[in-house]
Design a protein that fits this description.
The protein is mainly alpha-helical. It has one domain: Helix Hairpins. The protein has three helices and no strands. The longest helix has 27 residues.
């Protein structure tokens, strides 16, 4: 998911995607520890997606605080 796509989502949708991504990361870590994970790059991609989502959330919070 690209930044432009994330910015088009509502706050609730971003939070839902963040929860889903965190759950996916946890599952990937379990798979890695048990030796089931084949594509290890998915961990990196998921971590970066989580960082993008959190960045957009923080930007929106700062914008709201600045307007207040």
């Amino acid at each position: 998911m690209k930044v432009e796509e994330i910015r088009g989502l509502s706050d609730d949708q971003i939070l839902a995607e963040l929860d889903h991504s965190r759950e996916e990361l946890m599952n990937l870590r379990f798979q890695q520890s048990t030796g089931e994970l084949i594509d290890t790059s998915r961990i990196r991609v998921t971590r970066r997606l989580i960082a993008r989502l959190e960045t957009i959330i923080n930007e929106r919070k700062r914008e709201q605080e600045g307007e207040s």
